[in-house]
């Protein structure tokens, strides 16, 4: 290999067998590491592999997962060896480290083999959701990486569905890293050209159409069976003529990028220059396009539970915050449940009108005013003077009150016994027997006298006159009332004249039941009102005539009569036609259905008769059935299932019973002329 020198075009090239074999070995080594899509099983299909020791305690298979530990040789131990080769310790998977190594060959416990720590590698995935774009280790799980929205590995491709699936991931050790991804596609007679947009169908590559996933841009055509495809990152495409500064979208023609956004639109790459592009390959929305402009104020979010593409979630009102409530994202005012305990400090509370101070004391109590929200809006100290009855634990003895110079019961009794029995010594109350009181008057009042009266009563105690009732004057008629043999005086208030007026009522004989009235102003004497006490049988109390006067009993003397106004007078009589409401023209009043209920109009039409049908419902009909028949237009007389039934039919029919119909027959008259006549005929039976 040391003899290999560059050659110029046209110069004769002579290669020795050794140099040729060395070039073949170099080509094979490069091919085994270039990550070709569709490479054979014995080729690695990955890049950036390092040596790693299996320290998991068990033998491990190819594509098992280990976490990256420390280097096997530290710089402090052997700097030259550490510089010369990267060799790492592979330990039990630990999610918190985020440092993934995927074994590229089986490695026995304690042995050293190859593993990928950066770059693209196949791996087994535990797919939680088909929309997951990242993957991460699980503690103690060697066989799979668990998918999610975050993770140290970026998913390049995976099998559809959930559960354990094969996939390609990029290991970069950073959850948000976005390195270039260029894959080599080996596909017989691919037919692709530079700059075309292609997609991975899972079994092959094809031109991409609007709405497709797993797309990339052809950045190099190696030969008829091999191309390079950039799925994201910056790449140069020799010979391309893109419009610098333009965004290219998936166009209506499959595989052809265009600067015109279609519907749905999806940006594929940005032309940094005519030959350099930035492949973005964004996720599509529900319509297969990129993210459209949204009306603010709003955020892009998947508000509901479950996996879905983000949509605009508008903040519809001021003073609202975004939070998870009831399992979904919503804009709302902050609720109590959303505030952490002890999160609101005194500095966050608005000042009130209450002055900070200590309220109440030894001789005062504190008073507070609290609003609906439980805030104290006023405070004061008030001296309280309670009623004696409100005080508990009061003393029951003079000594308890602090009185030390009072007489005891024994001292008081001694004084009373030694002195005049009528002498009172410092007693709060005295009960003196009536017999011991001298000089008592013998009459009441003790001296003859009168007192003047005022208010509702005038005059003196000896001659009083009632002038008012509860401050209202009595009318002159009150004193002039006279009545029957047993008058009872009733008073009524004359609102117009603002005076009380007398009304003298008395009840008559309980035998006759008559109630009489005496009205001093009308002078009508014992006018009869009505026989109320005894009562008239089957009667009402009314004024039947069309004139003013006293009411009287109006008796219903005959059955089947009703009370109505007839000729301006109330009478009991049978219902007359004039008292019925108008019925429907050409109809009758009755109950059409076979049930109990209110009557109603049953209307008719021309050439109809009133008859009931098989369900016993009344109606006006053009066709009636006597009995029952299944022959349209026929009349059955009798039981239709009996041989004795007679059926009148427009045609001869074969039916049970005696069937008759009208037929036109040709007959000869007495002159021999043939004439057509109608005959009522029957079928044979």
Overall structural class, as computed from helix and strand content, comes to: mainly beta
Number of strands: 45
Rg (CA only) = 60 Å
Low-confidence stretches: 9-13, 30-46, 174-178, 285-290, 477-489, 504-534
| Approximate helicity band | under 10%
Shape: flat
Instruction: Provide the β-strand percentage band.
Output: 25-35%
**Distance linking N and C termini:** 125 Å
The helix tally amounts to: 3
The biggest beta sheet reads: 10 strands, mixed
Question: Your description of this structure?
Answer:
By secondary structure, this protein is mainly beta. Among the domains are: 32-171, no CATH class; 181-290, no CATH class; 451-531, no CATH class; 539-573, no CATH class; 587-621, no CATH class; 628-685, no CATH class. The chain is built from three helices and 45 strands. The strands form 14 sheets. Strands 1, 12, 13, 14, 15, 16, 17, 18, 19 and 20 form a ten-stranded mixed sheet that branches. Strands 2-4-3-5-6 form a five-stranded mixed β-barrel. Mean pLDDT is 74; it is low at 9-13, 30-46, 174-178, 285-290, 477-489 and 504-534.
Question: Which helices and strands appear, and what pairs or packs with what?
Answer:
Elements: H1 17-33, E1 36-37, E2 49-54, E3 65-71, H2 79-84, E4 87-91, E5 100-103, E6 112-116, E7 119-127, E8 134-136, E9 145-148, E10 153-158, E11 163-171, E12 181-186, E13 197-200, E14 205-207, E15 215-223, E16 226-236, E17 247-250, E18 257-258, E19 267-271, E20 276-279, E21 298-301, E22 311-314, E23 321-325, E24 328-332, E25 364-370, E26 376-383, H3 409-418, E27 457-459, E28 464-466, E29 468-469, E30 472-473, E31 488-494, E32 499-507, E33 515-518, E34 539-542, E35 552-555, E36 562-566, E37 569-573, E38 587-590, E39 600-603, E40 609-612, E41 618-621, E42 635-637, E43 646-649, E44 658-668, E45 674-682
Parallel strand pairs: 1-12, 2-4, 7-9, 43-44
Antiparallel strand pairs: 2-6, 3-4, 3-5, 5-6, 7-11, 8-9, 8-10, 10-11, 12-16, 13-14, 13-15, 15-16, 16-20, 17-18, 17-19, 19-20, 21-22, 23-24, 25-26, 27-28, 29-30, 31-32, 32-33, 34-35, 36-37, 38-39, 40-41, 42-43, 44-45
């Amino acid at each position: 290999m040391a003899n290999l020198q560059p050659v110029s075009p046209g110069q004769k090239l002579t290669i020795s067998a050794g140099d040729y074999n060395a070039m073949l070995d170099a080509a094979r080594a490069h091919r085994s590491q270039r990550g070709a899509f569709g490479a054979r099983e014995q080729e690695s299909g990955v890049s950036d592999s390092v040596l790693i020791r299996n320290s998991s305690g068990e033998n491990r298979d190819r594509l098992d997962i280990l976490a990256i530990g420390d280097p096997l040789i530290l710089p402090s131990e052997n700097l030259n060896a550490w510089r010369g080769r990267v060799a790492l310790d592979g330990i039990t998977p630990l999610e918190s480290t985020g440092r993934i190594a995927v074994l590229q060959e089986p490695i026995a416990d304690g042995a050293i083999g190859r593993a990928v720590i950066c770059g693209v590698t196949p791996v087994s995935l535990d797919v939680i959701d088909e929309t997951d774009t990242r993957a991460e280790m699980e503690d103690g799980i060697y066989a799979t990486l668990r998918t999610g929205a975050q993770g140290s590995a970026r998913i390049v491709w995976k099998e559809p569905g959930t559960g354990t699936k094969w996939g390609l991931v990029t290991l970069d050790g950073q959850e948000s890293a976005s390195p270039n991804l260029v894959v080599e596609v080996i596909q017989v007679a691919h037919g692709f050209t530079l700059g075309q947009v292609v997609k991975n169908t899972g079994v092959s590559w094809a031109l991409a159409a609007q709405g497709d996933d797993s797309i990339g841009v052809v950045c190099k055509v190696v030969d008829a069976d091999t191309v390079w495809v950039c799925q994201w990152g910056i790449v140069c495409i020799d010979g391309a003529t893109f419009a610098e500064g333009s965004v290219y979208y998936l166009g209506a023609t499959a595989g052809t990028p265009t600067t015109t956004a279609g519907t749905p639109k999806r940006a594929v790459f940005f032309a940094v220059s005519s030959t350099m592009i930035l492949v973005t390959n964004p996720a599509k929305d529900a319509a297969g396009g990129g993210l459209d402009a949204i009306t603010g104020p709003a955020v892009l979010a998947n508000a509901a539970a479950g996996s879905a593409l983000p949509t605009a979630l508008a903040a519809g009102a001021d003073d609202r915050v975004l939070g998870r409530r009831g399992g979904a994202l919503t804009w709302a005012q902050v609720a109590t449940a959303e505030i952490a305990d002890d999160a609101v400090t005194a500095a966050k509370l608005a000042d009130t009108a209450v002055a900070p101070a200590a309220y109440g004391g030894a001789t005062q109590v504190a008073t507070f005013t609290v609003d609906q929200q439980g805030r104290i809006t006023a405070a004061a100290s008030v001296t309280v003077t309670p009623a004696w009855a409100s005080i508990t634990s009061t003393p029951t003895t003079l000594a308890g009150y602090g009185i030390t110079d009072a007489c005891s019961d024994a001292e008081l009794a001694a004084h009373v016994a030694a002195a005049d029995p009528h002498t009172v010594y410092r007693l709060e109350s005295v009960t003196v027997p009536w017999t011991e009181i001298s000089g008592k008057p013998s009459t009441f009042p003790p001296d003859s006298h009168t007192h003047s009266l005022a208010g509702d009563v005038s005059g003196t105690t000896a001659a009083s006159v009632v002038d008012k009732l509860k401050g209202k004057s009595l009318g002159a008629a009150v004193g002039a009332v006279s009545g029957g043999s047993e008058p009872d005086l009733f008073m009524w208030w004359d609102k117009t004249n603002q005076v009380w007026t007398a009304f003298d009522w008395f009840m008559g004989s309980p035998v006759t039941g008559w109630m009489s009235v005496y009205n001093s102003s009308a002078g009508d004497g014992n006018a009869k009102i009505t026989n109320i006490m005894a009562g008239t049988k089957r009667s009402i109390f009314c004024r039947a005539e069309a004139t003013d006067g006293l009411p009287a009993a109006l008796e219903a003397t005959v059955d089947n009569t009703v009370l109505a106004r007839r000729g301006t007078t109330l009478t009991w009589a049978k219902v007359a036609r004039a008292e019925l409401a108008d019925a429907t023209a050409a109809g009758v009043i009755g109950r059409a259905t076979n049930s109990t209920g209110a009557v109603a109009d049953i209307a008719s039409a021309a050439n109809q008769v009133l008859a009931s049908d098989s369900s016993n419902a009344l109606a006006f009909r053009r066709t009636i059935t006597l009995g029952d028949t299944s022959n349209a237009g026929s009349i059955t007389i009798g039981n239709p299932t009996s041989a004795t039934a007679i059926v009148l039919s427009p045609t001869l029919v074969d039916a049970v019973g005696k069937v008759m119909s009208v037929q036109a027959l040709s007959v000869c008259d007495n002159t021999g002329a043939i004439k057509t006549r109608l005959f009522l005929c029957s079928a044979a039976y």
